[in-house]
Specification:
Blueprint: H1 6-16, E1 23-26, H2 34-40, E2 44-47, H3 52-73
Length: 74
């Protein structure tokens, strides 16, 4: 993303939907590491290349966790 970093996009998305699960993939970042990503609220920081299976597994994990959380509220 030439104009915004992944962290900036995540912050903007959290401003609109604070509980959205965000996964960021990057090939290289001088400013974003796992600790800073977690502090922002990013659920996972993946370093490219990322296999389709790994990405699928993480998306499924986050969706299952979100569904379980919603069911526990009801």
């Amino acid at each position: 993303m030439p104009q915004l970093s992944g962290a900036e996009v995540a912050r903007a998305m959290f401003a609109l939907r604070p509980n959205i699960p965000i996964v960021v993939t990057t090939g290289y970042s001088e400013t974003l590491d796992e600790n800073s990503a977690f502090e922002i609220g990013i659920r996972r920081l993946l370093i490219k290349p990322v296999s389709a299976k790994v990405l699928k597994d993480i998306v499924v994990e986050l969706l299952v966790a979100k569904t379980a959380k919603q069911q526990n509220r009801g």
